[in-house]
Structures are given as C-alpha cells and as structure tokens.
Design a protein that fits this description.
Blueprint: E1 4-5, H1 14-26, E2 32-33, E3 51-53, E4 62-70, E5 73-78, E6 81-85, H2 90-105, H3 110-118, E7 128-133, E8 136-141, H4 146-156, E9 163-168, H5 172-177, H6 179-189, E10 195-198, H7 214-222, E11 227-230, H8 237-241, E12 250-255, H9 261-271
Parallel strand pairs: 1-2, 3-4, 8-12, 9-10, 9-12, 10-11
Antiparallel strand pairs: 4-5, 5-6, 7-8
Helix pairs in contact: 2-3, 4-6, 6-7
C-alpha cells in the first residue's frame, strides 16, 4: 500500500520532498493522494483511488461533503454514506477520509468504515479534551508546527466564541526557520476575540545558538492586529491568563517534544 500523501505547505525543501515521494510512488503497488492539495495531486496515479474535500474534484473516488462540527464531534458524508467521529476539526475529517480511502483498497466497505470510525475516540494529545472546569473546556494538543497549530485553534472555535491558546515552541533553529510561517498561520487562524499566549522555547540540550525567543513570534503576531501575550515561564501562565478566561471559553494547550507537557496540562486543568 502506498503513502496517503498530504503535503501541508510549500517549504523551501518542497522540490526535494517531491522527489522522495516520486521514488516512493515508483516502489508502491498502490498510491493514494489528496486531490485537494495542490502539491500532492501532481503525484496522482488513479483518481478513483484518491480522496478530496468538499467536492473540489468530483472525479476523485472518495469525496467528503457536508462537514459539520457540534461541540468536539464532527460528521460528514462520503458517497452518501454518513460518518460521525468523536473528535474535532476539519483536518480530522481529512485524516478520516484518507483512512477510508486506504481501507477501501483493503476491501473494507464504506459502511464498515463508518461503523468503526463512530467508535474512534482519538489519540493521546491530539485535541485531547481533559474536561470542563468552571465552565471552561481544557484541550491538550501535540500541535507543534505552524499548520498544526492553526488547525488545532480552528478545531476549537466551533465550541466557543473565544479560544485562548497557549503554545510552547521547541528548538531554537526550527523556531527561527519557521518564524514567518508561525506568524502567518496562527494570525490567520485567530478570530478577533481569540488569544495566543506563548512561553519560552523548549531547549532539549545540545549545541545551538539561542538567537530567537518565543516573544519574537508574539511581537510579530501583535503587528497583525491579533491578541498575543508572552509569558516567559510557563509556570506563571495560568495566574496571568485566569482573568482572560470566562465560562464557555476553550483553553487550548499546544506543544511537543517536551515530555513534561502532559503533566503540565494536567496541572493547568487541576488548578483552573
């Protein structure tokens, strides 16, 4: 079975990346791509095996339509077969449709796939709802690159009129390299009432030049007109953010690589 290719963004390494997937395609018996992505669709082998979102390419074999989100649950249709999942976000519909397309190649029917996905509850630290306290929903998410942070924010927006998102970037070099992308993606995802908070970049050790701060991203986001706050020490975050939260809001906690993030999120929830 080939790769379910869904390249998220056009980075400088795109040409090299495409060559890698071209090689992978040549060595695959079956290859499925996302026709809704301008880059991946160029690698299409057979449209009837591919998938797409919201009728963007009616010739694709698996087309997702009628997306809806109620709370943290989503629903959509594929070829008149209804699907319901206990996870949030349009990006998770995309992931599900990719899985359905792959399952179909293994002989799994849409009805069977729909029944299986109905009981799927997501995975650890992927839009993981820790619970609701004082009327505030707390969500823990592994989001760590620009596109995933934006997707995590958007997945919480149907739940509340305000999302207060906190993010801890990791790695000085990756953060510096993706600075413009972080600013663009997060700024575009935030609504006027939403807020993005960041704590200092997680350092895992090794040789590096600490020539960027999470505050640089925050200042850049402020320049776009969106609400952004820097709190260097994450242990000070909840105390400073408390007054910005009210009943019905979503508190979204994002970050990766740092093994203590799971415990940090639990502490935030317990002390909210």
């Amino acid at each position: 079975m080939g790769l379910l290719l869904n390249i998220e963004k056009d980075h400088k390494e795109l040409d090299e990346l495409m060559l890698v997937f071209e090689t992978f395609k040549k060595n695959s018996e079956s290859f499925i791509v996302n026709q809704s992505n301008e880059h991946s669709k160029k690698l299409s082998v057979e449209l009837t095996k591919d998938f797409e979102m919201e009728g963007e390419n009616s010739d694709a074999g698996f087309s997702a339509t009628n997306f809806q989100q109620k709370g943290f649950n989503i629903s959509f249709d594929i070829s008149k077969q209804h699907f319901e999942l206990q996870i949030a976000g349009k990006h998770n519909m995309e992931n599900a449709v990719a899985a359905v397309a792959a399952a179909s190649q293994a002989g799994i029917s849409l009805i069977t796939a729909s029944e299986a996905l109905k009981h799927y509850e997501g995975i650890y630290r992927r839009c993981q709802v820790l619970g609701q306290k004082r009327g505030i929903w707390v969500v823990d998410d592994f989001a760590h690159n620009p596109v995933k942070c934006a997707a995590a924010i958007r997945s919480c927006q149907p739940v509340s009129e305000k999302v207060l998102a906190w993010f801890q970037p990791h790695g000085y070099t990756p953060t510096k390299f993706l600075r413009a992308d972080f600013v663009k993606e997060i700024s575009e995802a935030l609504r006027p009432e939403d807020e993005i908070w960041m704590s200092e970049i997680f350092y895992a050790g090794g040789t590096t030049t600490k020539d960027i701060s999470a505050n640089d991203l925050i200042e850049d986001i402020k320049q776009t007109g969106k609400q952004a706050v820097f709190v260097a020490d994450r242990n000070d975050f909840l105390e400073k953010a408390q007054s910005h939260l009210k009943e019905g809001n979503v508190l979204l906690l994002m970050g990766a690589r740092d093994p203590s993030l799971e415990q940090f999120s639990k502490i935030i929830f317990e002390n909210l």
